[in-house]
Amino acid sequence: MGAMRIRVAIDGYTAAGKTTFGHELAAAIRHRGRPTARASLDDFKHPWGQSIEHRYDRLTGEGYYRNAYDFDSARDLLLTPAGAHGTGLVALCGHDPLTGTDHRGILVHLPADAILIVDSAFAFRPEYNDLWDYRIWLEVSPELALHRGIARDAPEEGFEEAAKLHRDRYHVAEAIYLREVPARGLANTTIDNSDYDTPLRLHISRPDGA
User: Are 8 and 132 in contact, with CB atoms under 8 Å apart?
Assistant: First the structure.
């Protein structure tokens, strides 16, 4: 039997470096001859335009954690068909996070041996944790993540707004997540990503079913 499709999750605090790490991991895997696909669960959120209609509270940390993500679309359109026994026909984006445009009908076919690498905060939450074949946790301190996030978003949002966004929404949501989900304990691999240039592997275990 040849290699089968694998779904890899990269989780960690906002601004832990998940997206960049995912791109670099995908490039390294492709260099070894395996096809890859990239996605982010940030592209599987409910559109802002529906927040009032559906009473989504996406402004507070509690509301962001409970209401922002479209679990059904992520499961049905991305993660389930990307599995070893799935159809391979996946939507790599639900709604564009900037425009709200619905991309759920745009499907691509993943080869039978493709590795799907998905980055997201809250990736190990129970709504889709059972659909990962391998889980990576990027470890950084909450203080460093907060500093990075504010620095990243301040040029566009302004310092005060960026600080409020990360301090009052994202980090509150992440604290709720880590109280409810043993995310670090669920990871197959833990990597200290405090220094972008020299990530340090702290822990590794075998993937599910291996």
Answer: yes
